[in-house]
C-alpha cells in the first residue's frame, strides 16, 4: 500500500508540475506573440503622442536602477521629439516611497517641461496602468517604457486594453542577480496577466475621465 500511495503521490506531483509548466509557457507565448515586432530602443522607436513610463521602487527618495533606466529612456524619447508627452504611472503611496514624486523631480531637473508630464498615482499594476490609460486618460496610441521582459508584457496588456502600443526597452545598470530576479518575476507574472485579460478585470482604482494627456500632447 505504501508503494502504491507513493506512486500516486509522484504522479499527482508530476501532473501538477506539468500543468504549471503549460500555463507558464502558454502565457509566455501569448506575450511573445502580442509584442512581436513591437519592441524598440529609444533611438529606433516610432513616433507616438505619449509615452507611458512604468513606475518601480524608489530608494531614499531616488529612483532605483530599474526606474532610473526607464526615466532616462523617456528623457531620450522627449529630446528626440519621438513623443510629445509623458504619462507617468506608479504608486504614490508605495512602501518604498512616492514613486510619482521621484519620477517627476528626476525628469523636470533634467529639462522636461512639467506641463508635458501627467502623473497617474494609481498605476498599481501594469494591468491597471493600461486600463486606466484608456478609461481615465483617453490614450489610444502610446509607447510603453520599461525593461526587456516587462516591456513585452506591458505591450501585450496595453494592446489587450485597446491601445495601439509599442514598447521601448530601457537600459538598467543592474546586477546580474537583480536581472535574474526580475526575469523570474516576469515569468511568474504572465499567467496572471492572461487571467486579468480573460476576466476583463477592472483596475483597483477607477477615476473619472480627464483630458490631461490630450492637453499635454497639444502644448505648442
TrEMBL record:
Q: Name one Pfam family in it.
A: DUF218
* Full protein name: Vancomycin permeability regulator SanA
Tell me where in this chain the DUF218 domain is found: 50-188
> CDD domains annotated for this entry?
YdcF-like
Amino acid at each position: 500500500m505504501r508503494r502504491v500511495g507513493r506512486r500516486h503521490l509522484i504522479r499527482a506531483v508530476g501532473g501538477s508540475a506539468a500543468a504549471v509548466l503549460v500555463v507558464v509557457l502558454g502565457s509566455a507565448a501569448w506575450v511573445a506573440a502580442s509584442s512581436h515586432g513591437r519592441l524598440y530602443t529609444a533611438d529606433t522607436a516610432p513616433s507616438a503622442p505619449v509615452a507611458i513610463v512604468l513606475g518601480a521602487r524608489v530608494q531614499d527618495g531616488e529612483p532605483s536602477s530599474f526606474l532610473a533606466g526607464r526615466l532616462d529612456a523617456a528623457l531620450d524619447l522627449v529630446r528626440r521629439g519621438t513623443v510629445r508627452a509623458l504619462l507617468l504611472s506608479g504608486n504614490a503611496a508605495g512602501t518604498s516611497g512616492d514613486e510619482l514624486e521621484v519620477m517627476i523631480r528626476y525628469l523636470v531637473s533634467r529639462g522636461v517641461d512639467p506641463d508635458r508630464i501627467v502623473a497617474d498615482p494609481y498605476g498599481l499594476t501594469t494591468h491597471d496602468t493600461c486600463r486606466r490609460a484608456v478609461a481615465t486618460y483617453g490614450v489610444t496610441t502610446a509607447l510603453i517604457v520599461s525593461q526587456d521582459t516587462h516591456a513585452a508584457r506591458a505591450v501585450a496588456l496595453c494592446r489587450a486594453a485597446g491601445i495601439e502600443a509599442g514598447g521601448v526597452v530601457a537600459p538598467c545598470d543592474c546586477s546580474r542577480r537583480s536581472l535574474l530576479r526580475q526575469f523570474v518575476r516576469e515569468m511568474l507574472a504572465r499567467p496572471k496577466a492572461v487571467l486579468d485579460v480573460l476576466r476583463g478585470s477592472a483596475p483597483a482604482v477607477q477615476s473619472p475621465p480627464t483630458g490631461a494627456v490630450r492637453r499635454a500632447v497639444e502644448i505648442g
